[in-house]
User: Fold RNA helicase from Brassica oleracea var. oleracea.
Amino acid sequence: MPSMAQGELKSSVLNSKSPIASRFRMRQKIAEHRKSLPIASVEKRLIEEVQKNDILIIVGETGSGKTTQLPQFLFSAGFCREWKMVGITQPRRIAAVTIAKRVAEESDVELGQRVGYSIRFDDCTSSSTRLKYMTDGFLLREALLDPLLSRYSVIVVDEAHERTVHTDVLLALLKEVQRARSKQEGVQTKAGDEIGVKRNGGVLRGCQGRKVSPLKLIIMSASLDARVFSEYFGGAKAVHVEGRQFPVDIFYTVHPETDYVDAALVTIFQIHVEEKPGDILVFLTGQDEIESVERLVKERLEHLPEDKRKLLPLAIFSALPSEQQMQVFAPAPTGFRKVILATNIAETSITIPGIRYVIDPGFVKARTYDPSKGMETLDVVPASKAQSLQRSGRAGREGPGKCFRLYPEREFEKLEESTKPEIKRCNLSNVILQLKALGIDDIVGFDFIDKPSRGAIVKALTELRLLGALTDDCKLEKPAGEQMSQLPLDPVYSRALILANNQFNCLEEMLITVAMLSVESIFYDPREKREEARTSRNHFASVEGDHLTYLSVYRESNEFLEKRKTESSEAKIDKIMKKWCKDNFVNNRSLKHARDTYRQIREHVEQMGFNVSSCGNDMLEYRRCLAASFFLKAAQRQMDGTYRALESGEIVHIHPTSVLFRSKPECVIFNELMQTSKKYIKNLTRIDHLWLAELAPHHYKTDDEMNDFNTRDGMLQTEAF
Ligand code: ADP
Ligand code: MG
Assistant:
């Protein structure tokens, strides 16, 4: 606290309850914590290495202080002089946010000032921001507006071992940006050049009139295999930061568990009742699972004797409202044990202090893509060995720990060594559109660290052409393709908004739809109250399908909120809304997230010059717009009651959570395909099958037109291409 006078400090220390004294203690604690981190002892050496090398790879054990400390070292070493920034990318939104908050706290500055973050739909930076945490996807988008990324003196690509598709594309792009910047070093940019990003009321941040300077790249990774990155960057130097790791005892189950959620619950209580103090970290696969475990822990606690109830369940997953995100980091109240229910975010991205026990059911939610069928699914699959080791390591950060793997030991040996890079198992249409917008036309020849298959590239190009983003010779279509690349959404959703605006006059409804589809589940569906939930939700249900049902939920909640807005404080409104959600079996966190997302996408489209209008009650236009947008995901009922996805020809089933589960209409469009025991389609709307040929004539023809003699009347065929 350099500005504090000595006398003031002394008297405040005497009065230990004064706010100044408590702030002083907190600052002291933070300074001690920073000094105790393994990375602190190598600060000088690391800075020297950054100065000597244009590309540096830093490998270090999770929790050693890479993400929170290195950017602060760079700031102190002068890498942010004048207008320059250090950008740090994270694969996950929530890591970017929570880490920026922590670093702002450590640096004793207000978040959004010197230290800030930018993620899709949420920008917390200002013209004074010098350390900017962001998602890798966000930086890619920024490159569209400022191809040289000229504000950054250093870019740190963090968590590179995760190998998300955005990280992979970013690495290739940064290689080019670095080359271009060193070639143009010293060139004066024109004063009027509008380089930068226009957001939040039009702040322009670029480096107008300044000289181009070289770019430093730092690649950080938790895994021990730096070779792949080093080779990719032409033998770049790699340094290791030693971590501190205490022994962790690993326990396995004797038999495989049929219900790992239940097994996790049993283990939580077993630890709570039998083991010494220390917090528990449980790895689950997503929001639904986390919330159901959170609820079940609370319910079971009520049946324990008073003195055993001191267990505090806390959730952390990407769609968690921001005011709840930091709760997991706060120490548990005296005598309490925290049980943190997390997705794989807590594997390496964020480190939560106090963990001594880890429960690892051994699963993860992962994207898989079959380019031959054009079908992407999000499935729960076994975690890899590398992931399991990271997970158990979390128990030994501050002392010896225990990890409970909820599967037999022999299963561990069968796990894959590490996770396949995402670029090898996802739909590429989004990144290819980004690359096209960046002026990179030769996708097959692009310098990917791991090349995606040719089939996947061809499929994505075809899909982009069908969606109207690319011309027949695979150039960016103007203006549609350009607009689609600017929206931070999957191309199909961008297309839906563009069509809603240009053709169907239902942009308001489509914005709500896209926002509602961006959350994991809008309805709250407790296992034990399924029937009650279903009945209470009946009044939202639309015979036309799930999209209209979501619209009703959003609209009704909005009306409810509007009526109360004038009469209550914000905190009270939150409470009222929570109750409304509970009564209606709607997931409060998801609805809140959807509401935020709606606001942000609306801002985007308004900036693009769209006029947000509503089709009111004309749901026919809205459904036609859905058909015109999602025509690649249409399915038709078969004789036996199953459905055939028209694009892939696969047999699929309507998911039991859909409002169309019982009525089984003849033809539907859907947004999600899920593989469990069968292939299920989710988020459906009933459409007239003739609309497909009418609204997507470039892709569908009716039999009549094809003069095909042997198929059912009116049956649709996808055109070969
Ligand atoms: P690495 O990137 O090497 O995995 P980090 O820089 O993320 O390590 O974390 C360093 C240390 O900072 C860890 O010990 C962690 O517990 C602590 N830390 C990080 N974020 C917070 C937070 N929000 N609150 C308290 N401690 C935190
Ligand atoms: Mg880190």
Remarks:
- The chain has 25 helices and 23 strands.
- The longest strand covers residues 667-675.
